[in-house]
Amino acid sequence: MLTLDAQAQEFSYLNRFLFPISDTTKYQAKYYQQSFENQDSLVAGIYTLDHSIYSKKTVCFDEEKEETLSKTFLYDSLGNVKSYREKDFVLAYEFEIGFYPNGIVKSRRVSKSGEEEKVEFFDEKGNPTAPPAALEGVMPTPYGGMVGWNNYLAENLEFPLKALYRRKGGTVYIYFWLDKEGNIVNPEIMNPEQVYPSLAEEALRVVRDYPHQWTPAQKDGENISIAMRTPIRFETPKR
After folding, report:
1. For a tag site, which of 1, 50, 150, 160 has the least CB within 10 Å?
2. What pTM did the predictor assign?
3. Residues in domain TonB C-terminal (predicted)?
4. What CATH number should be reported for the domain holding residue 84?
């Protein structure tokens, strides 16, 4: 991470999973983030390497530095606002607005204390419309369900001795594709610089060596490939 201003401003590169990276010769940067923090707020913008805006988030704090309000804009590849999300931590409400490329509101959702209170949809002229038809889908499941997956991890995940000796723990996030037959394809580490190297290697190994097929994802009765991500946790033993 490069510090542009010792007091408040920071710059960092991000990989395609939006995790920070500092060694851009080893890991490929896809975005960069600039953030500015003062006494009562933080503003962070994420941009592509050709300087197109991807997202902008503002977080407000109270005197105890607790979050009180957050506002997040997401943009499409042309720089148009794709969605806006606001969350009030004091009043426990949240709303999200989706937009068409022409700027017309596409959808509006309001929730209170985690419960959805109102959902509205609109056509490209701004007229109220029915919710989009839901596609019949089935999410993938590992052999034996999540119990079987967790048992496999518990029985096969080994805590690397070097990391254990140095009391290095943490969570490795693994991204992979499940093909139409339920095979794990091309697993990769999402947060390589946030975890100890041997932990990342072991997490990747245990996912890559999974001996079973998953029940594949389906949409409208047809098997489909789907991207997945899973956390692999290493907890250091208590002294």
Report:
1. 50
2. 0.86
3. 156-235
4. 3.90.930.1
